Amino acid sequence: MAIAAKRHARKEQRLEARVTPDQKRLIERAAELRGTTVTEFVVVSAQQAAATTIKDFETLTLRNEARELFIKVVLNPPAPNEALRAASRRYKAQMGL
């Protein structure tokens, strides 16, 4: 969705949160420093945190030996075994291929 469309999208949902007085003062100060309303600050911050969280959970991260093994298997896949050949036959039969 384009940025302009996002700004003009109809806001139909409500999100509420209870915070401590200290949390509220902190959020108000941050919003003031950004030159925005508390609501806009909270919505933008929550949206950024949500996008980052989703990206982190949907991204496969491999380290050291696991990365090397993954690359090795992708570049040099093992020959299909009987179970894989049987699954392929079932799939082709189900799909009419």
What's the topology here?
Elements lengths: L2 H6 L12 H14 L3 H21 L5 H12 L6 H14 L2
Describe this structure in a few short sentences.
This protein has 97 residues and is mainly alpha-helical. It has 5 helices and no strands.
How would you describe the overall organization of this protein?
This protein is mainly α and 97 residues long. It has one domain. The chain is built from 5 helices and no strands. Helix 2 crosses helix 3. It is elongated and about 65 Å long. The two termini are 38 Å apart. The mean pLDDT is 91.
Query: Any idea what the shape is?
Result: elongated
Please count the helical segments: 5
Number of strands: 0
Count of domains: 1
The percent range for helix content is 55-70%
User: How far is the N terminus from the C terminus?
Assistant: 38 Å
- Approximate strand percentage: under 5%
Please tell me how large the radius of gyration is: 25 Å
By oligomeric state, this entry counts as single chain
Mean pLDDT: 91
Helix/strand-derived class?
A: mainly alpha
What are the secondary-structure elements, in order, as H or E? HHHHH
Low-confidence stretches: none
Largest sheet: none
Relevant terms:
mainly alpha, 5 helices
